[in-house]
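Tip: read the tokens left to right.
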């Protein structure tokens, strides 16, 4: 039996289902006008397409809780536009199309463990760790005398993603990157 969610249970991050499609609440506000019925002004994101929608729901509306499961899997390889993953317990393999990865594709390095989101048994999304250590493959050398405080230069990571780094970072260095913002955090000392 599926769980029923009432609008009184709405909170940021809550997952619910409308017309066989899973959504996640981005923000909400309970509104009690002086005249008329109470309602909930809601912004919610499709967990499959990423599209953000806005709608007012009547207070007391009911929704189903989606059949969602999150599993830890290991990234194996990329083939065309599909990214292949393996469950390390059952050795079951699955793939996620590139559009289902979002910004996570910028940080996909072979053999990392990621969280795969499944909806009704189908992989729909990937969450990478909050920080990752990645090697710089292309970077211009810092110019001597260019000592402006906080000066940055572009550097290409082993995944192909370009991040701005301080001038003292060189090609071959390993850096820690925040995968949520895509920003440089620190250099990793070997």
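Filled-in amino acids:
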């Amino acid at each position: 039996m599926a769980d029923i969610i009432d609008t009184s249970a709405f909170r940021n991050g809550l997952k619910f289902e409308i017309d066989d499609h899973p959504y996640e609440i981005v923000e909400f506000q309970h509104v009690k006008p002086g005249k008329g019925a109470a309602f909930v002004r809601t912004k919610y994101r499709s967990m499959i397409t990423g599209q953000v929608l806005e709608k007012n729901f009547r207070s007391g509306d009911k929704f189903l809780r989606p059949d969602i499961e999150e599993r830890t899997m290991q990234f194996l390889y990329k083939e065309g536009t599909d990214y292949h993953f393996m469950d390390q317990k059952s050795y079951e393999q699955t793939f996620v199309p590139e559009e289902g990865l979002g910004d996570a594709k910028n940080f996909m390095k072979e053999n990392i463990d990621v969280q795969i989101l499944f909806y009704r048994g189908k992989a729909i999304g990937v969450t990478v760790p909050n920080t990752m250590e990645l090697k710089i493959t292309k970077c211009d050398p810092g110019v001597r005398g260019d000592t402006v405080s906080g000066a940055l230069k572009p550097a290409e990571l082993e995944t192909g993603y370009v991040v701005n780094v301080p001038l003292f970072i060189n090609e071959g260095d390993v850096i820690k990157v925040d995968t949520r913002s895509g920003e440089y955090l620190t250099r990793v000392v070997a």
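The CA atoms of residues 45 and 52 lie 4 Å apart. The mean pLDDT is 86.
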